[in-house]
Amino acid sequence: MRLKDKVTIITGGGHGLGKAYARRFAGEGAQVVIADVDGAAGEAVAEELNRAGHAGWARTTDVTEYDSIEGLMAGTLERFGRIDVLLNNAAIYVTQKMWMGRVEDCPLDEWDRVLEVNLKGVFMCCRAAIPVMKRQKSGKIINIASGTFLNGTSNMPHYTSSKGGVVALTRVMARQLGDWNINVNCMTPGSTMSEEVVTEDVRKRRADSAGRRAFKRVEVPEDVTGTALFLASADSDFMTGQLLVVEGGGIIH
Ligand SMILES: NC(=O)c1ccc[n+]([C@@H]2O[C@H](COP(=O)([O-])OP(=O)(O)OC[C@H]3O[C@@H](n4cnc5c(N)ncnc54)[C@H](O)[C@@H]3O)[C@@H](O)[C@H]2O)c1
Predict the structure, then answer these.
(1) Which of 40, 43, 106, 170 is deepest in the core (most CB within 10 A)?
(2) How does DSSP assign 118-141, residue by residue?
(3) What would the pLDDT profile of 110-149 be if each residue is shown by its tens digit?
């Protein structure tokens, strides 16, 4: 029970990797707030956790709307009285389809759409949670980046840039928040078979990534939840501003 009674917000917790973090954290005793723009998916995860005897609560949240984020923070405080962990996982990636291609072809509005969720959404969730954590003089912020940023993966320039921004923001916030005992770290899963529809193209992409790894197999959500748990728990109390790469040794960083 490494997160016993810790109040944890997981953005994008309704699907894929976010759902896996929610299950793992709840199993470790956390009170998990699932903050997804897909309210029905968030409710389904909360119900599943509660049926299993854990504590889950869904709060429909759009991380591109500051009012919605403020409602999430206020609702969490009203219900649980504090915010111990903020896991910024929501992104445009699988559940909400993303355009792919070259920089010179990238539609301008598609660039904005992805940056709005993947980078500005992280910034706004942190902006709203930091005052609460400062008052508590404690807190853990975990941001989800991506190996695409380290690789320079070439077919999703907006996504890759947004994740580079998440790493930069993590480092800035780590330096700013140490005096309040707030840890800010980020981690990156590798190419992971999450909740997507497995087409031939998806299967090939995941298999190609597996082939480049030290551990030559397809990554699954359960491969990354232990690292998130470490970053959320007291075991990482003296660690801040870091990026942990959890992808089987394809990138050695
Ligand atoms: N699966 C991978 O291969 C992989 C690799 C590296 C990093 N990541 C990162 O891990 C995280 C989860 O990825 P996933 O594979 O589970 O993808 P996913 O698309 O299934 O999950 C993203 C979640 O964010 C939610 N979301 C989207 N827009 C939102 C908004 N405006 N407000 C609130 N919630 C919103 C979606 O509903 C979904 O539940 C993402 O940050 C992704 O960039 C994934």
Answers:
(1) 170
(2) IIIHHHHHHHHHHHHHHHHT-EEE
(3) 999 999 999 999 999 999 999 999 999 999 999 999 999 9
Position of tokens 């355009």? Answer: 99
Burial of 202 (0-12, 13-18, 19+ CB in 10 A): middle
**C-alpha 85 – ligand 1 centre gap (Å):** 18
Owning domain of residue 43: 7-246
**Comparing 65 with 197, which gets the higher pLDDT?**
65
- Whether residue 43 has its Cβ less than 6 Å from ligand 1: no
Instruction: Please check whether residue 94 is in contact with residue 195, taking contact to mean a CB–CB distance below 8 angstroms.
Output: yes
pTM of the model: 0.98
The answer to whether the CB of 142 falls within 8 A of the CB of 236 is no
CATH number of the domain to which 103 belongs: 3.40.50.720
Residue 2: inside a domain, yes or no?
A: no
| Partners of 188 in beta bridges | 245
**Considering the domain boundaries, does residue 252 fall inside one?**
no
Phi and psi at residue 64, to the nearest 5°: -95, -5
Q: In what order do the strands lie in the sheet with 243-246?
A: 55-58, 31-35, 7-11, 85-88, 139-144, 182-189, 243-246
In the predicted model, what is the mean pLDDT of the chain?
97
User: What is the DSSP-derived secondary structure letter of residue 193?
Assistant: -
In a domain, 79, yes or no: yes
When divided into structural domains, the chain yields a total of 1
CA 106 to centroid of ligand 1, rounded, Å: 20
Ligand 1 mean position, distance from CA 179 (Å): 31
